[in-house]
Amino acid sequence: MTQDLVVTEQDCATHAGYLMRAIVEGGEVIESLRDRILGRTTAEDVLHPENQSVLAAAGTMLDEDLIEELEAAGVDEVKVRTALTCETRFGICAKCYGRDLGRGGLVNGGEAVGVIAAQSIGEPGTQLTMRTFHIGGAASRSAIASSVQAKSNGNIGFNATMRYVTNGKGELVVIARSGEIIIHDEHGRERERHKVPYGAVLTIKADQTIKAGTTLANWDPLTRPIITEFAGKALFENLVEGLTVAKQVDEVTGLSTLVVIDPKHRGSAKVVRPQVKLIDASGNEVKIPGTDHSVTIGFPIGALVQVRDGQDVGPGEVLARIPVEGQKTRDITGGLPRVAELFEARSPKDKGVLAEMTGTISFGKETKGKIRLQITDPEGKVWEDLVPKEKNILVHEGQIVNKGESVVDGPADPQDILRLLGAEELARYIVDEVQDVYRLQGVKINDKHIEVIVRQMLRRVVVQNAGDTSYIVGEQVERSEMLNTNDALRADGKIPATFTNLLLGITKASLSTDSFISAASFQETTRVLTEAAIMGKRDGLRGLKENVIVGRLIPAGTGLAYHEARKVRENMDDAERRAIAEAEAAELAGQSEVELGEGASAE
């Protein structure tokens, strides 16, 4: 599938790229910025954090000396060009690929980078199969983070989605699912960014100046809280002992707590859902400000209720806790099967659900065994999904979520990430996940090899609106062909087609190449050849595989120069060809006259 990816030009002149920063997990640097950007090309000027002078201009390849300068200046993120943002139509450009890892200089034209990428990922695979690491049990449990510390001095800031309330003890309790603490240095540049879970207690305030090592937030890693954002009297609904809740007595302390259970005996019509409503001092239901939704907080199965019926609660107070033990039971596929799963772009078994749009959460009428989850956007458009009751829902009634945010717990589906968060986020996800597998085995692979493969997985697009093209809506087309068609239409002042990205697994991508010779040599030969015959396809012999099959020089290495010279000759008109032929004939005639003259003088 990647064998067709060859360096075909020097520079595609794009300004697109990805921001690279060091990978940090649990306060430990797993992969430094240096390792990630060495041998890459900058996508934009890299500025000095303090005096804003240019340390490296856009389009510079970062070598060891330059990276040392960046490290000395305290640069902590760099926007670099990648194989995924390269705008070369066929193949890839040298600048986006960066350093040839075998030689240490910028990659040469004609280098078969796709083959190198496939080999670089495949070769350590032989080591992966030999020893599988069994993750899980006590070792991984102890590594769960319960707080977050600052690694550098600076000022505290929060991201746009961060929301928190002050509880009775005066602590700040996070009520956002995607809240982040950001630390800026004295020049206002971002130094660190930390995700903070829902229910965490912040130990710092906005705009506070802190020293390295300060604890920013802490939380209970073993339970997930359900928190009220408003004050009022807690009124239980449908919390019937023996039906929806059961008493659980702690063997050690002797204290009893209520645990939400699955109601086995169902009423004929109404589905009972244990929840808490808040009542204000005058006995009315507390409403969410700006809406006529009353504040109702549902309890999922397995939640331990922490409040009593009729108890007064304040904002930031914990109403129930969900033990996280159940969350850890994901199937941990390690080693090669996990890598294959990622590259085949398979949807995981119990996949999580991401919010399809930004809006407010509500729950509709339940069905047997399923909960109706709805999101209403500011314009009033509603999206809904039926979620099985045993699934862990991460949101509650009236909560505002952003597009692409996780609303139901579970492993992410790459297709959802691409659709909702875009190609950059998808690439980041696949690269990080594949690297995690190899890193566990102590294998180092350069990110660019994985990016090259993801580029090939994303090389087809789906037509959304055909415009003035001859495509049909929903048709799958090669990205390069689509861009060429659109360019031609724009030049004629016509309407170009619009399209969305399509993620294909590597097997699927191999079978859907434009070259039927290449596809037929891979799998399903009869089907591929019959289809090609019916559609009267023409193979342009662009890639490596099809050229090997028909016995021509491959368009890589020195073969690339040969094919380019041949194309130049083919594109000449007759007059040019005749002129060259005459010049060559004259040269030959001149040479033969000289030879004849030399022969005569020798006699």
UniProtKB/TrEMBL annotation:
Residues 2-513 form the RNA polymerase Rpb1 domain. One of its GO terms (biological process) is DNA-templated transcription. InterPro entries: DNA-dir_RpoC_beta_prime, RNA_pol_Rpb1_5. GO terms for molecular function: DNA binding; DNA-directed RNA polymerase activity. Its EC number is 2.7.7.6. Keywords: DNA-directed RNA polymerase, Nucleotidyltransferase, Transcription, Transferase. It catalyses: RNA(n) + a ribonucleoside 5'-triphosphate = RNA(n+1) + diphosphate. It is an enzyme of class 2 (transferase). Gene3D superfamilies: 1.10.150.390, 1.10.1790.20, 2.40.50.100. Coiled coil: none annotated. GO terms for cellular component: DNA-directed RNA polymerase complex. This is DNA-directed RNA polymerase. It comes from mine drainage metagenome. The lineage of its organism: unclassified sequences, metagenomes, ecological metagenomes.
